[in-house]
Design goal:
The structure holds 4 protein chains of 4 kinds.
Chain A lengths: L15 E10 L2 E7 L3 H7 L6 E2 L6 E2 L12 E4 L6 E5 L9 E5 L36 H13 L14 E13 L3 H12 L4 E4 L9 H4 L2 E2 L2 E2 H14 L3 E4 L2 E7 L3 E6 L15 E13 L3 E3 L12 E3 H9 L8 E6 L5 H9 L3 E7 L6 H10 L2 E13 L2 E9 L4 E5 L2 E5 L2 E3 L2 H4 L6 E3 L4 E3 L7 E3 L9 H18 L32 E3 L4 E2 H9 L5 H8 L12 H12 L3 H4 L11 E2 H5 L11 E2 L3 H6 L3 E5 L2 E6 L8 H14 L2 E4 L4 E6 L3 H8 L12 E7 L5 E11 L2 E6 L4 H15 L6 E4 L4 E7 L3 H8 L16 E5 L5 E5 L8 E7 L3 H11 L6 E2 L2 H10 L46 E8 L11 E4 L11 E9 L4 E9 L8 E6 L4 E8 L9 H4 L1
Parallel strand pairs in A: 1-7, 8-9, 8-15, 9-12, 15-27, 17-23, 18-19, 18-23, 19-20, 31-33, 34-44
Antiparallel strand pairs in A: 1-2, 3-4, 5-6, 5-7, 10-11, 13-14, 14-15, 16-24, 20-21, 21-22, 25-26, 28-29, 32-33, 34-40, 35-38, 35-39, 36-37, 37-38, 40-43, 41-42, 42-43, 45-48, 45-50, 46-49, 47-48, 49-50
Helix pairs in contact in A: 3-5, 3-10, 6-7, 11-12, 11-13, 17-22
Chain C lengths: L1 E4 L3 E4 L4 E5 L11 H9 L7 E7 L7 E7 L5 E6 L11
Antiparallel strand pairs in C: 1-2, 3-4, 4-5, 5-6
Chain D lengths: L4 H9 L17 E7 L3 H12 L6 E4 L15 E2 L8 H19 L10 E5 L2 H16 L5 E4 H7 L14 E5 L3 E2 L2 H14 L3 E3 L4 E6 L5 E6 L2 E10 L5 H7 L6 E13 L7 E3 L6 E4 L4 E12 L7 H14 L7 E13 L5 E4 L5 E5 L5 H18 L13 H4 L16
Parallel strand pairs in D: 1-2, 1-11, 2-8, 4-13, 11-18
Antiparallel strand pairs in D: 3-7, 4-6, 5-6, 9-10, 10-11, 12-15, 12-16, 13-14, 14-15, 17-18
Classes of the chains: A alpha+beta, B alpha+beta, C mainly beta, D alpha/beta.
Organism (chain C): Mesorhizobium huakuii
InterPro entries (chain C): SoxD (IPR006279), SoxD_sf (IPR038561)
Pfam families (chain C): SoxD
């Protein structure tokens, strides 16, 4: 049975009392209402203890009512949806919500780790740097695991996130962060001016402080003005208002990051919907109306549950009709804190006392005190009596030295206000100090961004409205919209005065950073040890590094550092502000790019046919390629691949090679262009012929290779490797547009236009004769080796035929328009049926290329020269080409370079593996004799043994030498013979035949 | 001698299942694959931009787009695809390579791209909301008017995007995507549109 | 970052690829090894306004010369590479 | 004061009022035997080794801001020696051995945690490349293991094995790799070097070089006045080109931004250091509980120390692809550092063409793990005027001769390394 809402006020608030919700916290049932946050519902149920601190495991309550909360962090939801470190202050209540306190064992009330408090005298800032060093082995075995277990906050689910995320783009003229009075006024002005506006509000409700503080605007009660304004904005077609959306970062060129919590207010997202959406908003102008954050005062016991920010207390009372305490004391150093007194009194709560650090208070406040029978003490809170059950008694040091005590069950604290300077500082602009409000205000904001209202250090309601309105109108104007904005909403400004007070000296721990348990004395210690720079202070004490990124602690921390180091606060300065403004789920940044949709998938034109054949696919870049085609009864991949190779070498087979990059090179200067990008010459290639080409990078290292054919006087068809297709296109465009703009040449990728198949084997011509129009001459004379031309196929379509061979067999490559790709595969099966045609995959392709000693990816490693690959004779000496000069550098032509050779094991039964190193026989392996490594291996059906290619020092001079293949990482060692890399048909008779 | 049948298969032949998808109720997004079109890329030769434009004007009756636009003629759409280049999208071989090569012989370089792309037409009340998940282009009616085109990327994949004539008062956005990426992008589109409800179809008609 | 492609208009960073300083000019064929070494390897690595080669590979495939401040990422000018969109230029 | 649990306990009795500054706050002298520009890990380590190994104690370390304010304080704290090419392999292992004794050397707990570094592979080709690299390591006496899928599953059952776009097939593991607390490394070297007489001078920006008639560098001009020097060593990775420019040198280096990220603190989730082999993502978990992760550089020249969304998204996509359990873990902070990206991806430790000026630069995004080794060999170079044998290939003229050390095989394009 749920506990009654003991601390729910009888009326008022923006909760929907007709919609009760039940929820559980630490296993106990409670109830709340629609419109509650978890924190407000806990407050309404009289729950004060909600968490334990990071280091000392001290009991903690709820400090704030917003996203700056350092204490009230819970594990929300359960199982695979468990979300650690969720702020109870922003988690919306929903039916069945489950939350648990964290960083405690076995329970929140009896946390064994609170024993850490006993060691507090030793656990000062940076203590771990001074110990745990002996013996050295103990760190990983003993100390570190213990520290890791003790540290951390909540527990991640530990299993895959079941929810979905997506990412979207939005565009506007004026982006407004925050829907308080300044933000609404800015949106109103910009919208009326005709600008496209996006307004982001992190809360589920629009209105910001108006929801808690009320006020009068344009003569209307704030709530009424709010409704009217939201209605006006909603009626503008180009104004988009987004709740549950936090603007978390600003990037270059007016790009902003925002997180929309689409369905976090529900137990789980509805079908087809995402949990959260990451927005990338492109805005010409941005008005930051993110408000200000009230800051604590550092005093002994300031972390006792029941100590709460004054503004938070009035939010709980005013907005949620939930009383954090029955008898409240206020500790303030500024005028604004008093508003909590007024709110509390208005809700029928008792005020125990006001402790005001300022020398004077207004007569209005004085009469308020006397009318309501509470005392005003001039001084400061020096201690709090109370434990996990919350505040009981408050010790006060009165101005003049006397002491007093106040009995209360809640202490509201107001140390002044810090404008939310995060967004404006993310481009490394440092905020500047303003003495009159004793706070940092934005300065050096990113281009196009301006702060307005409380975010700009102007806290009055009237000022927020007028500044926001002016900023919105100006932003619209700057973005090119000159419509009439009308008049700004009007309200009075409340008085604001503050007498800075950061730290009250006293006995007991006084916390600056609640979550990380950084105390005032830690800061003093840091200063003593020379960590005076604010960045050193932060790193040494961990001040400001918790999940709230110091929103409630940084300014107090540096003020204390300023005091102990004898500098002013602006001299002491701030640390660097970094996004995101609030922590953002990693899943949201990933969007749908996870699991199988992590990256796009490219399918070859014959993919679905290959899948029907039962092909096993392999990822090659983004491609799925058929790796081999297993047949029933084959025991492993090797058996299938060997069968495919034998079928090709003895009959005919085909393979989809559409993944090769294909580029149309057009224009009168196409030949001249290719001469500059290849090391060999293409301008003299005859029409109807193909030629193998090699490209270098400008540093003289081999970049890519492929076959290029001349289809017409001014038209070449260039192919690249699969891996480099996109990069070669980019490189060629660079050559065309930047290096050689004088050439008349045009480039177009036609990779996807053509389904290309390699058909190889002695019966290739027989197969082709079946499918190619009978009028086409495929004889050696009519279609010689390296010929290339268009042919007609039976059934009326045209294809391009290239007589090129990667396998070393009599072979052609045939291209048909891609929508015929699947039909082509079927027709090749049909045409080759009587010749036992066999489809083969990339493995068999690889075997045959190794048997032929052709280089591929492993040899094109980005560190090999043409000479290393045995292709230096291709380098023309009659022309300039990319990479020519640098290829001649001494280390690149040194005689002891590692060059491609073949290898075969001396034990014919031995399997080879790539990655083994080559060591001279009889020597002990070491850095001095590590002479190369094995790049590619395969079982060669032709040789009936494993063979391989290797890069070996002076390898070509050492053919016949027996060396050692050293593979310690796989525990293998064996002898191999260095040999000619062309294992199969070295004269090339078969491919020319 | 075997009989060869050269049936064509669009890149989305397997992936596209006509009918409703995703959330129930009225479909917010309609995805229609247009099949069996002719597509030729024309790139101007050095110093021949004006000649190419003249040839295009003569043949199509309209100027080829010199900025990111798509221009409709009676039987073709000319879509800007980059500086000094454009696509000719047509049907039934009226503007196929065989006809165009001689026309542009002196001024342009032509590449056959009919099979290199898939064409997906997107419409419906939520078309822009769905495309906002895929495209960084501002598709606001004022920013991307009828006839606007863009060479851009979706899901890290190059596409040509243009806005056709409105249909039933709603914007129609067309996407040409590389054929080998088409199935992947299609699934991403379905994922993005599922929450709005999708009506899936294919068509032989250019819109 | 957003780059205003002279052909496409303003586009997001993800559509572009970076190559580096646009100032070094590829030496003539007979310039010798020192000049090529300098071209390939040495960089001013400017902290400030720099002219750079960017490729609009996710868009119109034009190479662009972008003037950008490496301290602030502010882009002050974008122009096409000499051979991008140059068909109007005489052969 | 010697640091230990006993000194801590004693200090606690006096309310920690008696701790001394961790390093002396020195004011610059007129002249030093060696002036090191750059108070990062490398500069401070160099000073410590000059003093402790080479007996040169009249040394100043000049730091423009606060020590550790450059990449020493902005990295992802990984240490490893799993390199595959001659030059790198031996050097990084030297560095690793120095990590293993650092805390005892310095009397400072830098939380060197040898929790293991694993590079995951997703294809046969990648496996073979890792095998090659692992064999290089083993031949050089470095620990390396090639794990198959079953071993990876056992070690990291939380990875996405079932529905991954690029399924994990195995990994290359160096158990001695791990992490160290980056700031503590800086403070530890400062503490120890200061104790041996090295002057650490913060807020002292070098604005120029003092040269004699022969062009030899004889000192530096600084924001705190002229400081004479027998030799000047530069250890200012990220700003190498800017400082070298003051001496009229152009370097084979570009400055690029590398982003890094940390999540909210959570209870122990990830036991080791992992790199995804099919995307740009690597991760470890700090002792405080945050997942510390990163990926590729943004890819454009930058001195802004901040990056943009595409890379941030790319990194998180990699993370989610590898282990979708982190979907609900929140990213807390992103930051950026300036990388000295060299033209082959490997560092430069050498004399410069300017007499008296020594260069330690080009660390790309691998500088942190090199900290002790870099300090050691740079101190050797400064003290002996000859390169340490393990750094003999890190020459400035290797680009001229073609003897590049290009682990990634990307050539003279820094943003691809």
């Amino acid at each position: 049975m749920a506990v009654a809402q003991t601390n729910r006020l009888g009326n008022g608030g923006l909760i929907d009392r007709s919609a009760p919700l039940s929820f559980r916290f630490d296993g106990k049932s409670f109830s709340g209402f629609q419109g509650d946050t978890l924190a407000s519902a806990l407050v309404a149920n009289g729950v004060k203890l909600v968490g334990r601190s990071f280091k000392y495991h001290r009991p903690r309550g709820i400090l704030t009512a917003g996203s700056e909360e350092p204490n009230a962090l819970v594990e929300l939801r359960s199982g695979s949806r468990r979300e650690p470190n969720t702020k109870a202050t922003t988690a919306e209540l929903y039916e069945g919500l489950e939350a648990a306190s964290q960083n405690r064992w076995p329970s929140l009330r009896f946390d064994v780790m609170s024993v850490n408090q006993l060691f507090a005298p030793i656990f000062v800032a940076g203590f771990y740097y001074k110990t745990f060093m002996w013996p050295a082995k103990f760190w990983e075995a003993i100390y570190e695991p213990a520290i890791r277990r003790a540290a951390g906050l909540g527990r991640a689910a530990g299993v895959a996130d079941p929810d979905h995320y997506d990412k979207a783009w939005a565009h506007c003229d004026v982006l407004v962060a925050g829907s308080g009075p300044a933000g609404l006024a800015a949106a109103l002005a910009a919208g009326r001016s005709g600008a496209r506006v996006i307004l982001c509000e992190e809360d589920f409700a629009f209105g910001g402080r108006l929801l808690s503080d009320g006020g009068t605007i344009d003569g209307l009660p704030a709530a009424e003005w709010l409704l009217r304004t939201l209605a006006e904005l909603a009626a503008m077609p180009d104004v988009r208002i987004m709740n549950r959306t936090t603007l978390f970062g600003v990037y270059d060129g007016g790009t902003y990051g925002a997180l929309e919590r689409v369905n976090d207010h529900l137990p789980s997202p509805p079908e087809h919907q995402v949990r959260q959406r990451l927005w990338r908003i492109v805005a010409k102008r941005c008005v930051v109306a993110a408000g200000a954050l009230e800051r604590p005062i550092v005093f002994a016991g300031n972390d006792t549950p029941g100590v709460m920010m004054a503004s938070a207390m009035r939010t709980y009372v005013g907005r949620y009709a939930a009383a954090p305490a029955k008898r409240i004391a206020l500790f303030t150093n500024n005028e604004d804190g008093w508003r909590t007194v007024e709110t509390a009194l208005g809700a029928g709560l008792q005020i125990a006392a006001v402790i005001d650090a300022r020398p004077d208070i207004s007569s209005a406040h004085r009469s308020l005190a006397s009318k309501n029978g509470f005392t005003v003490l001039h001084g400061a809170v020096s201690g709090v009596d109370g434990g996990k059950d919350g505040v009981r008694k408050i010790a006060v040091s009165l101005t003049g030295g006397a002491r007093a005590e106040v009995e209360a069950d809640g202490l509201a604290v107001s140390g002044g206000w810090n404008p939310a300077v995060g967004l404006t500082s993310y481009h490394r602009g440092r905020p500047k100090w303003r003495d009159d409000i004793a706070a940092f205000v934005p300065d050096g904001a990113p281009p196009g961004m301006v702060a307005a209202g409380a975010a700009n250090g102007d806290f009055g309601l009237g000022a927020c409205l007028s500044q926001g309105f002016a900023a919105g109108a100006a932003a619209a104007h700057d973005a090119g919209h000159g419509g009439k904005a009308g008049t700004a909403p009007v309200a009075d400004d409340e008085a604001f005065s503050v007498t800075p007070l950061w730290h009250v000296a006293g006995k007991g721990k006084a916390f600056v950073d609640y979550q990380h348990d950084v105390t005032a004395s830690d800061i003093e210690l840091a200063q003593r040890e020379g960590f005076e720079s604010v960045e050193h202070l932060k790193r040494y004490t961990t001040l400001g590094m918790a999940t709230d990124q110091g929103k409630t602690s940084n300014v107090a921390g540096l003020a204390i550092m300023a005091a102990v180091s004898g500098r002013s606060i602006p001299e002491t300065g701030t640390t660097i502000y970094r996004p995101p403004y609030v922590p953002v789920a990693i899943g949201a940044f990933a969007g749908h790019h996870r699991d199988e949709t992590f990256h796009a998938t490219r399918l070859t034109p014959s993919h679905h046919w290959a899948a029907e054949q039962g092909a096993v696919f392999v990822d090659t870049g983004l491609w799925k390629r058929a790796q081999w085609y297993p047949r029933a009864g084959e025991k492993d991949w090797l058996e299938s691949v060997t069968r495919e190779v034998k079928a090709v070498r003895s009959g005919v087979g085909f393979c989809d090679v559409s993944t090769l990059g294909k580029i149309d090179v057009h224009g009168p200067d196409a030949g001249a262009f290719l001469d500059r990008v290849y090391i060999n010459t293409f301008s003299n290639l005859a029409v109807g012929k193909a030629r193998y080409g090699l490209m270098l990078r400008e540093d003289g290292i081999v970049y890519d290779d492929g076959t290029t054919s001349r289809l017409a006087e001014d038209h070449y068809f260039l192919t690249t490797t699969t891996a480099k297709a996109g990069l070669v296109m980019q490189h060629l465009e660079f050559c065309r547009q930047v290096l050689f703009p004088e050439l008349d040449v045009q480039l177009t990728s036609v990779s996807d236009q053509w389904a290309q198949f390699s058909i190889a084997g002695p019966k290739t011509r027989d197969l082709l004769k079946e499918i190619v129009d009978p009028t086409e001459d495929l004889s050696n004379e009519g279609f010689p080796f390296m010929g290339a031309r268009e042919v007609a196929l039976r059934g009326g379509i045209k294809a391009r035929l290239f007589r090129i061979s990667f396998s070393g067999e009599m072979a052609f490559e045939i291209s048909v328009p891609a929508r015929y790709g699947e039909a082509m595969a079927r027709n090749l099966m049909l045409a080759g049926k009587s010749f036992g045609v066999t489809p083969y995959g990339t493995e068999a392709l690889g075997v045959m290329r190794i048997e032929k000693g052709h280089i591929a990816g492993p040899e094109l490693s980005g560190t090999t020269t043409a000479a290393d690959l045995g292709l230096d004779k291709m380098m023309s000496t009659k022309k300039d080409f990319i990479g020519r000069v640098m290829a001649g550098r001494e280390a690149l032509v040194a005689p002891d370079r590692q060059v491609v050779v073949g290898i075969k094991p001396t034990d014919k039964a031995r399997r080879l593996r790539s990655g083994a190193h080559i060591i001279p026989k009889g020597q002990t392996p070491g850095p001095g004799n590590d002479q190369g490594y094995v790049t590619s291996v395969c079982f060669s059906p032709a040789s009936d043994q494993w063979i391989g290619l290797a890069l070996v020092e002076r390898g070509r001079e050492r053919i016949g030498e027996i060396v050692h293949a050293h593979d310690p990482i796989r525990g293998e060692d064996y002898d191999v013979e260095l040999c000619n890399p062309v294992f199969y048909d070295p004269d090339g008779g078969r491919q020319r035949g | 001698m075997a009989e060869f049948s050269w049936d064509v298969r669009s890149p989305l032949d397997r992936a596209l299942l006509a009918g409703p998808y995703g959330a129930h109720g009225d479909a917010g997004v309609t995805l229609t694959e247009i099949r069996n079109f002719d597509l030729v890329q024309v790139m101007a030769r050095r110093g021949k931009a004006v000649d190419m434009a003249t040839v295009a004007k003569t043949r199509f009756g309209v100027a080829a787009p010199e900025t990111p636009k798509a221009v409709h003629t009676a039987d073709a759409t000319l879509i800007w695809s980059g500086p000094d280049q454009f696509f000719i999208l047509a049907k039934n071989g009226k503007h196929a390579m065989d006809w165009l090569v001689p026309t542009f012989a002196a001024s342009g370089s032509l590449s056959e791209q009919s099979h290199a792309r898939a064409l997906i037409s997107i419409s419906g009340a939520k078309a822009r909301a769905m495309l906002a998940k895929l495209s960084s282009i501002d598709l606001h009616p004022g920013a991307f008017a009828v006839g606007a085109a863009a060479a851009t990327s979706m899901d890290h994949t190059s596409v040509t995007l243009w806005r056709g004539n409105d249909r039933d008062g709603q914007a129609v956005l067309n996407v040409l995507v590389f054929a080998t990426f088409a199935e992947s992008l299609w699934h991403t589109m379905l994922d993005s549109a599922a929450e709005y409800g999708v009506a899936i179809a294919h068509s032989e008609e250019l819109t | 970052m957003r780059i205003v492609c002279p052909f496409c208009g303003e586009r997001e960073l993800g559509e572009f690829t970076y190559l580096g300083d646009a100032k070094p000019v590829r030496p003539a064929a007979d310039a010798g090894e020192d000049a090529v070494y300098d071209y390939v390897y040495l960089r001013d690595n400017i902290a400030g306004v720099m002219s750079e080669n960017w490729y609009h590979g996710g868009g119109c495939r034009a190479w662009l010369k972008v003037t950008r401040n490496t301290l602030t990422h502010e882009i002050s000018a974008v122009e096409p590479a000499a051979g991008a969109g140059a068909a109007k230029v005489g052969a | 004061m010697k640091y230990s649990i006993f000194s801590l306990a004693r200090a606690a009795l006096s309310g920690h009022k008696n701790w001394q500054r961790t390093w002396r706050d020195a004011t610059p002298k007129d002249r030093y035997d060696v002036v090191i520009i750059g108070g990062g890990g490398h500069g401070l380590a160099t000073a410590w080794f000059l003093a402790s190994e080479y007996g040169i104690r009249n040394v100043a370390v000049l730091e423009k801001g606060w020590i550790g304010s450059g990449n020493a304080g902005r990295n992802t704290t990984i240490i490893r020696s799993n390199y595959g090419l001659p030059g790198n392999t031996g050097f990084y292992e030297l560095s690793m051995k120095l990590w293993e004794r650092m805390e005892q050397d310095l009397n400072y707990n830098a939380m060197v945690s040898q929790r293991g570094v694993i590079n995951l592979y997703h294809s046969d080709a990648q496996r073979d490349a890792y095998a090659r690299r692992g064999n290089t390591m083993r031949i050089n006496g470095i620990d390396a293991e090639l794990l198959d899928l079953a071993a990876v599953k056992k070690m990291m059952p939380f990875l996405n094995f079932d529905n991954a776009r690029f399924p994990v097939q195995g990994g290359l593991l160096q158990r001695r790799g791990g992490t160290a607390r980056h700031d503590a490394v800086v403070w530890g070297y400062a503490h120890a070097a200061s104790g041996l007489g090295v002057d650490i001078i913060q807020n002292c920006e070098v604005t120029g070089f003092v040269r004699d008639a022969n062009g030899k560098v004889t000192g530096v001009e600084t924001s705190r006045g002229r400081i004479g020097a027998g030799k000047v060593g530069m250890a200012v990775a990220g700003s190498s080109s800017r400082v070298a420019d003051m001496a009229g040198l152009r370097l084979p280096i570009e400055s690029h931004v590398l982003q890094a990220f940390v999540s909210e603190a959570i209870k122990p989730l990830i036991p080791n250091v992992m790199t995804f082999g099919a995307g740009h993502f690597y991760v470890s978990q700090s002792d405080k509980g945050g997942l510390v992760f990163g990926g590729d550089i943004d890819g454009y020249n930058s001195y802004a120390q901040r990056g943009n969304l595409p890379v941030m998204e790319d990194v998180c996509e990699g993370g989610m692809a590898l282990m979708p359990m982190i979907g609900r873990v929140r990213l807390l902070r992103q930051w950026g550092g300036i990388m000295d990206m060299s033209m082959d991806g490997s560092p430069i430790i050498d004399k410069t063409p300017v007499d008296g000026l020594y260069l330690n630069a080009g660390w790309c995004y691998g500088g942190f793990k090199a900290t002790p080794g870099s300090g050691f060999v740079f101190a050797h170079l400064l003290a002996r005027d000859t390169p340490h044998e393990e750094a003999a290939r890190f020459r400035l003229d290797r680009f001229r001769t073609g003897a590049m050390i290009d682990e990634k095989g990307q050539g003279a394009q820094p943003n691809l390394h």
